[in-house]
Specification:
This protein is α+β, with helices and mostly antiparallel strands. It has a single domain, classed as RNA polymerase II/Efflux pump adaptor protein, barrel-sandwich hybrid domain (OB fold (Dihydrolipoamide Acetyltransferase, E2P)). About 15% of the residues lie in helices and about 25% in strands. The chain has helices spanning about 50, 75-85, and strands at about 10, 15-20, 25-30, 35-40, 60-65. A three-stranded antiparallel beta sheet has the order 1-4-5, with no helix packed on it. Strand 2 (about 15-20) and strand 3 form a beta hairpin. It is globular. The two termini are about 25 Å apart. The model has no long low-confidence stretch (mean pLDDT about 90).
Length: about 90
């Protein structure tokens, strides 16, 4: 798992890191723009925490530079519907 450093600036929709599985390396995309204020350092040594508790494990905390971007995020229910109906594409 590669995560940004505290103080790094993120831009919505741009990559901020990656996660590697047995089959592939996947980019992580910023859900919103802002400054990284905390990083879950334990994920660099135990990334499997994401698999065991995907909704409860945090990667980073962002001080938002544009709070309006949050309104464009999908709810959990909308995301589930998107994945089921669209196949995630």
């Amino acid at each position: 798992m590669e995560l940004p450093k505290v103080g790094d600036e993120l831009t919505v929709g741009k990559t901020f890191g990656s996660v590697e599985s047995v089959k592939a390396v996947s980019d992580l995309y910023a859900p919103a723009s802002g400054k990284v204020v905390a990083v879950n350092e334990s994920l660099t040594t135990t990334p499997e925490k994401i698999n065991s508790d995907a909704h409860g494990t945090w990667m980073l905390r962002i001080q938002l530079s544009n709070t309006g971007e949050v309104n464009k995020l999908l709810s959990s229910d909308d995301y589930d519907k998107y994945v089921k109906e669209e196949g995630g594409h």
